[in-house]
Amino acid sequence: MRQRIFTASKAGDLARVRSLQKLMLRSRANTLVSVRRVTERNAGRLTGGVDGEVAITPEAKAKLATRVQRQTEPFKAMPVRRVYIPKRGSSTKRRPLGIPVILDRCHQARVASALEPEWEAQFEPRSYGFRPGRGCHDAIAAIYVNANGKSPKRTWALDADLASAFDKLAHNHILQMLGTFPAREMVKQWLKAGVVEDGHLSPTEDGVPQGGK
């Protein structure tokens, strides 16, 4: 299904992309894979959100999958719990993480599975950040290939960091880029759900928390 979404997006067939994404969002297989990803593979699988809930046993995971697949009430996103972890390369600085409740994490994984192939078909081939199956080593290899040899294609490299990039992302722009994506309203709720820190709820007018899905 993800391959079909990718192919339709590559061909510019938006109507087919949306139809296939709706099927993905209803797919029980997608739900099961998403629950497994959240409860078994994610680094924060043992960390609860504001409700403290985790799913460790096979029985708890099965119940969670049923809740995700058969949700009868209208969806309502929960606030994320803010925690701080040491910032890599610094002994004093810490970076904030937003920990969603486990139910939201499962829904986020489902939504990502439907959305990801649409955008993978449009991204530049030489971008490597936050993309499936790509990482730092791929970027290093591309740099080596371009900078190596007697007549290198590039002779310089730029090393830069955007300060608080995730904290300043505009919600309206994100939603505009999603267009008619079937789960757009769910994404909007996650963006606006707020952050709980030291027992206090703060609204989120812009930015996205790091630590979800």
Task: Describe this entry's structure for a reader.
Helices cover 45% and strands 9% of the residues. It contains eight helices and four strands; from the N terminus they run ααααββααααββ. A hairpin with a 2-residue loop joins β3 and β4. The protein starts with a helix and ends in an 11-residue tail after the last strand.
Q: How many whole angstroms does the radius of gyration measure?
A: 19 Å
Structural class, please? alpha+beta
| Distance linking N and C termini | 20 Å
Morphology: globular
What amount of the residues lies in strands?
5-15%
Strand order of the largest sheet: 2-1-3-4
Number of strands: 4
Please give the share of residues in helix: 40-55%
Number of helical regions: 8
Mean pLDDT: 92
H/E series: HHHHEEHHHHEE
